[in-house]
Amino acid sequence: MKGQILSGFLAPHPPHLVYGENPPQNRVKSTGGWESLRWAYEKARESIKKNKPDVILVHSPHWMTIVGHHFACVPELKGRSVDPIFPHLFQYDFKMKIDTDLAKLCCEEAKAEGLTAKLMQNPNFRVDYGTIVSLHMLNPDWDIPVLPISANNSPYAFSLDAGQEQMIKLGQATKRAIERRGVKAVLAASNTLSHLHFSEEPNPPEDMSREHVQSDAQYKWDMRVIELLRNGKIEELKKIYPQFIQEAFAEVKSGALMWMLSALDFKPIKADFYGYGTVIGTGNAVMEWKNSAGGAL
Ligand code: 2X7
Ligand code: FE2
Questions:
Q1: Which one of 37, 192, 218 would you pick to mutate in the ligand 1 pocket, going by the greatest count of ligand atoms within 8 A of its CB?
Q2: What is the mean pLDDT of residues 219-228?
Q3: Is the C-beta atom of 192 inside 6 A of ligand 1?
Q4: CATH number for the domain harbouring residue 130
Q5: How, if at all, do strands 91-97 and 4-10 pair?
Q6: Is 270 within 8 Å of 288 (Cβ atoms)?
Q7: Using an 8 Å Cβ cutoff, are 142 and 127 in contact?
Q8: Domain count, the chain
Q9: How confident is the model at residue 294 (pLDDT cuts 50, 70, 90)?
Q10: H-type helices in 35-87, by residue range?
């Protein structure tokens, strides 16, 4: 059977969301916080439980690779992941099953697109917090195999255009690999929108009286982008993307959103908006693109 992408998610990864939730895997405990975003993720969790995908693929900016696009290819990875910037918020004991057959097909298809691609086969690899936070927030039961994909550094080291072009090819390669593997897949674009944040943290970090947008300009950018995405205006989004990235310092520069939209063939799907919230001033939206809404299923 030909595989298919059931849906794609914009699944931001501030470690504060896991910290605020207090799951048993996180050694650091909080009194809560960032509820609007955490409750937005509850809607994503419900959708995943309902659709029962075989695999969740995640593209994270915090697994950055300089040479090529890497695919995790070890049957199980486990260990403790600590956020290098917020180690007091995130010390997470992870354990994940990986669809290694899909990793191999993704790597093959990425090479067929002319990309440099590699399998990551180090059994002691410490998975980055971006991958883990998005996956935990989407499926805290960890009962669905996953496929972590690295963010190649080209949008930063080379140029935005060349970098995004690579993400578009990576998206197409990912789609073909899923079809060949014959699985029902969900894609997670692990990205914050506006990304300038405060340099001082309140005590405790979950003091929500101190949480707000970093600037009105950033907020306006986020709303403009979300409005386009809610209305399926992908071609218009592409036009303003460079300016958004530059002016809002948007984390989507690292490629996850472009990868996901490309895998969905840039269909004008009206994304379901589950919620928006700031984390230390950055703008974060949880959204879902149901592939069936674009007439593909
Ligand atoms: O990695 C992040 C992020 N993207 C946004 C906010 C806070 C922390 O970490
Ligand atoms: Fe980040």
A1: 192
A2: 98
A3: yes
A4: 3.40.830.10
A5: unpaired
A6: no
A7: no
A8: 1
A9: confident
A10: 35-51
The per-residue b/e assignment along 87-102, b for 16 or more CB within 10 angstroms, e otherwise, is eebbbbebebbbbbbb
Residue recorded with tokens 């354990």: 95
pLDDT digits (tens, 9 = 90+) for 258-279: 999 999 999 999 999 999 999 9
Q: Is the pLDDT confidence value at 170 over 70?
A: yes
Beta strands per DSSP E along 66-189: 69-72, 76-82, 91-97, 117-120, 146-152, 184-189
Structural domain containing residue 153: 4-294
C-beta 17 within 6 A of ligand 1: no
pTM of whole model > 0.85? yes
**What are the respective helix, strand and coil percentages of the chain, to the nearest 5?**
40, 25, 35
Token pair listed for 56: 């969740």
Kindly state the tokens that stand for 68: 């090529």
**Three-class SS state of 230:** helix
Arithmetic mean of pLDDT, 2-12: 98
What is the residue type of 200?
E
Closest CA to 259 of 181, 147, 184, 182: 147
CA–centroid distance, 61 to ligand 2, in Å, is 6
The token duo for 77 is 């990875």
